Amino acid sequence: MKLGELASLAGVRLEGDPRTEIRFVSTLRAAGPGSIAFLSNYKYRPYLADTGASAVILPEELLDECPVAALVSDDPYVTYARVANALYPAETVEAGAVHPTAVVAEDADIHHSVSIGPHCVVESGVRLACGVVLGPACIVQRDCSLGEDTRLVARVTLCHRTQLGVRCLIHPGAVLGSDGFGLANDRGIWLKIPQVGRVVLGDDVEVGANTTIDRGAIEDTVIEDGVKLDNQIQLGHNVRVGAHSLIAGCAGISGSVTIGRQCTIGGGAGFGGHLELTDNVVITGFSRVSKSIREPGVYTSGTPLQKQRDWQKNTVRYRQLEKMAQRLSELEKKLKD
Amino acid sequence: MKLGELASLAGVRLEGDPRTEIRFVSTLRAAGPGSIAFLSNYKYRPYLADTGASAVILPEELLDECPVAALVSDDPYVTYARVANALYPAETVEAGAVHPTAVVAEDADIHHSVSIGPHCVVESGVRLACGVVLGPACIVQRDCSLGEDTRLVARVTLCHRTQLGVRCLIHPGAVLGSDGFGLANDRGIWLKIPQVGRVVLGDDVEVGANTTIDRGAIEDTVIEDGVKLDNQIQLGHNVRVGAHSLIAGCAGISGSVTIGRQCTIGGGAGFGGHLELTDNVVITGFSRVSKSIREPGVYTSGTPLQKQRDWQKNTVRYRQLEKMAQRLSELEKKLKD
Amino acid sequence: MKLGELASLAGVRLEGDPRTEIRFVSTLRAAGPGSIAFLSNYKYRPYLADTGASAVILPEELLDECPVAALVSDDPYVTYARVANALYPAETVEAGAVHPTAVVAEDADIHHSVSIGPHCVVESGVRLACGVVLGPACIVQRDCSLGEDTRLVARVTLCHRTQLGVRCLIHPGAVLGSDGFGLANDRGIWLKIPQVGRVVLGDDVEVGANTTIDRGAIEDTVIEDGVKLDNQIQLGHNVRVGAHSLIAGCAGISGSVTIGRQCTIGGGAGFGGHLELTDNVVITGFSRVSKSIREPGVYTSGTPLQKQRDWQKNTVRYRQLEKMAQRLSELEKKLKD
């Protein structure tokens, strides 16, 4: 593409020759001719002067240091997103192609534009809207519904009655609609509780590889519009994630947790059950959430990494914290006397 | 079903008209005509008076507040389990149906009642007992054995020689019998140790979506009767889980750990290798277990979630705990003098 | 095999009859005739005198206590690895067999010795070298390349352009090359960043069941030679793992982390993004790494498991650490006065 086109579709100012040919993205450091790089994190500023890129996306204040053409942006990373999406459109698939090895129920309601890959299984009562793409080996069980342009990359499992909005993107190995972990203890024996709710995704939801989302116990598990889930996340039954929230990899969200809108949950964070987070909460990576959070802000738990020798000493003291506090109080009392 | 039938099969007292028609379950709050709800957690008591349910399962002492028919139970959640299982029997599948796309070894020993879904692979030497159901795209590798009425929901992988008892239920993406992580370090190079044990599940075991259970290194990995495993759990080689224990999602159990009977392991809990837990131990969610536990009880680790600003201050002090303890001792000594 | 053969291929000294027949491995305790056991961990020394094994691998200094034939080794576990690999060679598959249910692109470059199992999908532009084995239901998307003797056990997903070296072993449910979690926030809406790098594995890399490795955002995610990854691990985009490092199950490695050579990362360990670990670092299980590590050694974080009652008291004090430190300073000051 021409740099001028990219500037115009990203809605930013161009400094340089609009006819510059851009074919791929690169980092500032490894860039070669035909590439466009971006500078968002100032840590990479030292690489700007010597970059081999044909163009760089950067903030106004770094323009003077840029040796090549530039797209000037208040938010270079957002501009980079737009430019990269233009340079790398989603892989096109043949509209309407249903692979002969796919097993598709006769009563499934499938738009003529839908593409279904090899070894897929589409069960009875399923609805696939215009532009839906099922990559190889996807399983869509009975009565699921997928909105327009939703794409299952490969090997996705949707259990019965799962609902996906439009433009959702689900990565390999994800399982949506598996049974929630509902059990009643009858004098030492666990009785399974039928899980009769659904998983319901809004529009523009992305679900990472090998992430699992359980169906609701009675009511539904709900993921609102624009939510982005990374890999290997577990969402228990009846979780609700508010619109435009983001959850990083390996987070574990116990049943009936409600997360507000535009929250950011760091990787590996763990949630106790039945908690509520208000909007705009940030949980840092690998923190443990054991209480509801009613005030926006950044929250953390955990202890710092130490050399094991130091850790061992401090950890002994940790066990004695209650006693240390009592000794401190006694000293204060004595001194007062 | 009639409410009278439900009362009788659950073995509880009915207050109200036994001919009341019950078609589905619901929460107290969202209930409509034809539904049955339950009240087990007193947090939901305020919704009882105005419930739209046709019947409610509740303890004797709340009977007076119930505006509709009631099933009176000492343990409403267990009664609910029985009622819900009656209202929502497991999906029936056509007995004996083997999908033409399934690839089944000629020498597999398959009961005539077994149902095998599309794109399944059943290898040589496999034994599938009466009533076994393989959902779509399950892989059962050579010499596996599945007991009566065991069901693989969809896309389950059983590696060679895995043994499942009767009435097991395995959810999508689960992998049983993968190689354990056994490696010997030969002057900087890791040598793989062949993993020649099996995975052996007892009866009535449930395994969640994308959970992995490694085969034993020499002897077997064993999951005893009635154990319930949630999603995304990892059980290393030679783990043994005692009967009727329960492990919540994302827990990581290192190799050769032995967990007793009727233990409850919270979500995301992590175990060091070669530990032993006695019976009736509870580990709270996201705790880290680094020593064997010989006494029943509830165990926890971890630090509380805090606003990041507070956390930063406390975490600095945590690193100084050993020094703080020394300073405290010195003060005590001085004051004594 | 004869014990003499095993001694000679493992390069160790034999004490006893070289014609002793060895058919399988066992533990010292459960051993029977025809088996070989090993003693590496002195915890198992009490079982040596009464072992039923036909031979034992052990260090010189325990030779006197051994009631049967012995292989004498400086490193019994390494010797056991060699012996067990001789007794249990990898399952042989029919070279050149492509199952009729496999869907293989016409333009894929497939060596005549390659074995492809049922329900596999091999897309356009893929290269499979001599001796590659694809177990059942593997998906190899366009333009992937697999080196000689690399084996996908079953149900592995390789997304487009993933590169594997020679003798790699990938376990069921693993997903390599899924999109990294790259998103730019445009006034509350998350924009997806195309992930255009690849996943590149060196030689002799092992990847555990249900582990996920994301493709790079711009440059590649790289796993060097001899790295061993356990189950359920998540490696974010642009992670680099140095040669002969080992990562245990459930670890979560955030994007752009660089791990040095011959590091050992314990199970469930969590890494913040963009960190660097030098060579020969050990992170203990379930630790959280939030800073780069420039010095080899053993590192830990976390607090010890306690009875919940004790934990509750100490955890209250933990929140007060900063205040306790201040009170301590005041006392010291007063006492000085």
Structure characterization notes:
Chain A is flat and about 85 Å long. By secondary structure, chain A is an alpha/beta fold. The first copy, chain A, folds into three domains: 3-87, Udp-n-acetylmuramoylalanyl-d-glutamate--2,6- Diaminopimelate Ligase, Chain: A, domain 1; 156-299, 3 Solenoid (UDP N-Acetylglucosamine Acyltransferase, domain 1); 310-337. In chain A, the strands form six sheets. Chain A has a ten-stranded parallel β-sheet, with no helix packed on it. The first copy, chain A, has four helices and 36 strands. In chain A, strand 19 (183-186) and strand 20 (189-192) form a beta hairpin. The mean pLDDT of chain A is 96. The first copy, chain A, has helices spanning 3-10, 76-87, 308-319, 321-336; strands at residues 13-15, 24-25, 35-38, 55-58, 69-72, 103-104, 109-110, 115-116, 121-122, 127-128, 133-134, 139-140, 145-146, 151-152, 157-158, 163-164, 169-170, 175-178, 183-186, 189-192, 199-201, 206-207, 212-214, 221-223, 228-229, 234-235, 240-241, 246-247, 252-253, 258-259, 264-265, 270-271, 281-283, 288-289, 297-300, 306-307. The interface between A and C is large, with 69 and 72 residues. Strand 36 (306-307) of chain A pairs antiparallel with strand 35 of chain C.
